[in-house]
Design goal:
Pfam families: VWA_2 (PF13519). Keywords: Signal. With 608 residues, the protein is of the alpha+beta class. It folds into three domains: 192 residues, von Willebrand factor, type A domain (Rossmann fold); 127 residues; 207 residues, no CATH class. 19% of the residues lie in helices and 35% in strands. It has 13 helices and 29 strands. Helix 6 runs parallel beside helix 7 and helix 7 packs parallel to helix 8. It is globular and about 60 Å long. It starts with a strand and ends in a 10-residue tail after the last helix. The C terminus is likely disordered.
């Protein structure tokens, strides 16, 4: 049984020694309604009205923001989050917008220019929502990450009257130009005593997170990390109420007391924290919170008032909203009293989870409903699954890992790769495409025949070479299936051949080939006025789409185009059409059109 240690905090509440930081932590661990109260969703999770100070938003538009793992591209997630922040400001707010990375590429030859590539898109002034939204929407990421220079530019836009003011920085990486951002932040704080810089690390870790955390800590700002688009939107809003954010359960702790700290480390920051033994499991009741230590190391934090996450999830919130933010439950426990405990991911790297006590729990066809009663933060994620060897190891060229799938349900992520090779000889080159699956026990390969010649890049004339790369496989699309994920491998050729698609599936842990959907050869590209592609828009389905636009200089032009799509499912050994649509498509300009469609893949199914 865990031992319980209670502090004498309440008897000392009136002491002058407990200054602002103590008051903040008390607020973090208490509830105005009392320990047993469960507030309504509107009362618990609605954001407080923002009292805006002059604020400059810095948005990262470096090349890495094109990565599609948000899901969708990182820049799209940043756009949505930034617009949400702008919409939260009152109409008389003083707001500016700065970005970096839109004026150069990210090659070595462009570094000198890229490290000066900072743009003031909107000068500090009374908020013009339409203009700011337009500038955000127009961002096209491509270059370097000069964070320090961007902070200097943002600070130069702010008043010099010593009043409260803020910079909010969203970045997915570290400064790539060699100027330490933390040192610059200290300098700016001296020049602007009322300045705070809050930072949001989008999918950051290691040095990038350390840099962003140091910037925020040095300037009394807030540092938060986000792993997906919904978290990014919520945590960008959190930067506007740093007091409330510090009173909430972050992904790593509460009010500067983090999971994994030893009791000695906690006491160095909070001298009145009770002594704790270094063995066994001990629960410390301190400032209306339960701090549980395992062998002297902080293992969980449970506020008596029910708790609140930094994203606004609180008692009374539907559990479905928490699942939208933190992903599917990793563990569900029936307490046999009408309640359930659900563990969701807070920080995978730290193995930290949010443990929700849920009332009125129901689950039907994969949808979970219920109301959150209490929240705790704990080091309670299940062990990370092991990973199989790299299937591309020893392959010199033409190998790309495309997925990690637990093929046989043994808790090991089996790693899937596609290998494309072209063999030169007399006449046209020939090609083979191999799919390799590396499991913990073996590596299995399956050969896909290529009907007709595969041509090298030098054999593919025409303007299309400026926009797409000839390939032995044009993409690998994952289709959600009950037993894991199937793979669609596209074999594309240039002039003189018809691209086709092969669908690979697993039976147990062995590979086999399915017939092409609709028993057809699905063409991928038709350069004379249309473009076709495959996608995985819904679990269990594959979608074939054709964009039929007008033409421009011999190339498709999406302006005024029509997108026709047909969806297929696979069952009983055959593909069946389950629906079609035809809609106007005005979604892209010429450069983005090619880049987007050639790279289209089913990223949301990449890990099952």
């Amino acid at each position: 049984m865990p031992r319980t240690v209670a502090s004498g905090f309440m008897s000392r509440l009136g002491s002058f020694l407990f200054a602002l930081a103590v008051v903040a932590l008390l607020a973090a661990c208490s509830s105005d309604a009392g320990d047993s109260a469960v507030s309504s969703e509107s009362a618990s999770s609605a954001p407080a009205a923002i009292i805006a100070v002059p604020t400059v938003l810095i948005l990262d538009a470096s090349g890495s923001m094109t990565i599609e793992d948000a899901p969708g591209s990182r820049i799209d997630a940043a756009r949505i989050a930034a617009v949400g922040l702008i919409d939260s400001f009152p109409g008389d707010a003083m707001v500016g917008l700065v970005t970096y990375g839109i004026g150069t590429g990210s090659s070595d030859d462009e570094k000198v220019a890229g490290c000066q590539d900072v743009k003031s898109l909107v000068g500090l002034g009374r908020l013009d929502r339409d203009r700011v939204r337009g500038e955000i929407d127009a961002l096209r990421p491509s270059g370097y990450t000069p964070i320090s220079l961007a902070m200097r530019r943002a600070a130069s836009m702010l008043p010099t009257d010593g009043g409260n003011q803020a910079i909010v920085l969203v970045s997915d990486g570290e400064d790539t130009c060699g100027v330490p951002p933390c040192e610059v932040a200290r300098e700016l704080r001296l020049q602007h005593p009322g300045l705070s810089i809050s930072t949001v690390g989008f999918k950051t870790d290691g040095t990038a997170s350390e840099q962003l955390n140091c910037v925020a800590t040095t300037t009394d700002g807030l540092f938060v990390q986000a792993a997906n688009s919904r978290q990014l939107a919520a945590r960008l809003l959190a930067t506007q109420d740093t007091k409330k954010a510090r009173e909430s359960l972050s992904t790593k702790g509460l009010a500067g007391i983090d999971l994994g700290l030893t009791v000695g480390e906690v006491k160095r920051g909070h001298s009145d924290f009770p002594d704790v033994g270094l063995s066994g499991r001990v629960v410390v009741v301190w400032r209306d919170c339960d701090f549980t230590f395992q062998d002297g190391v902080l293992d969980s934090i449970a506020p008596h008032g029910g708790g609140r996450t930094i994203d606004g999830i609180a008692p009374g919130t539907p559990i479905a909203k928490a699942i939208e933010l933190y992903g599917d439950p990793l563990e569900t426990v029936d307490n046999k009293d009408g309640t359930y405990n659900l563990t969701l991911t807070a920080d995978e790297a730290r193995r930290a989870g949010y443990k929700f006590l849920v009332k009125d729990y129901t689950e039907s066809k994969g949808s979970i409903a219920g109301t959150i009663a209490t929240i705790a933060l704990c080091r309670c994620l299940p062990p990370a699954p092991s990973r199989a060897p790299d299937p591309c190891a020893g392959v010199a060229t033409g190998c790309a890992q495309v997925a990690e799938v637990d093929v046989d349900g043994d808790g090991t992520y089996d790693r899937v790769a596609v290998i494309a090779t072209a063999n030169s000889g007399k006449g046209n080159p020939t090609a083979s495409v191999t799919v390799k699956v590396a499991t913990a026990r073996e590596v299995e390969e399956i050969l896909i025949k290529v009907e007709g010649p595969l041509r090298s890049s030098s054999d593919c004339p025409g303007k299309r070479d400026q926009h797409s790369e000839p390939c032995a496989y044009d993409g690998a699309f994952l289709i959600s299936r009950p037993r894991g994920a199937d793979l669609v491998v596209t074999k594309c050729v240039c002039a003189g051949g018809v691209p086709t698609h092969t669908v690979i599936t697993w039976t147990g842990n062995h590979l086999s080939i399915l017939a092409s959907p609709g028993d057809r050869n699905w063409p991928t590209v038709n350069y004379e006025g249309s473009y076709e592609w495959l996608s995985c828009e819904r679990p269990g389905e594959v979608t074939e789409s054709r964009l039929s636009p007008t033409s421009y200089a011999g190339m498709p032009n999406p302006a005024g185009g029509i997108r026709k799509s047909e969806r297929f499912t696979y069952a009983d050994g055959r593909w069946t059409s389950v629906g079609a649509e035809s809609v106007p498509d005005l979604s892209a300009d010429i450069p983005d059109f090619w880049k987007t469609l050639v790279a289209f893949k089913c990223t949301d199914q990449a890990r099952r």
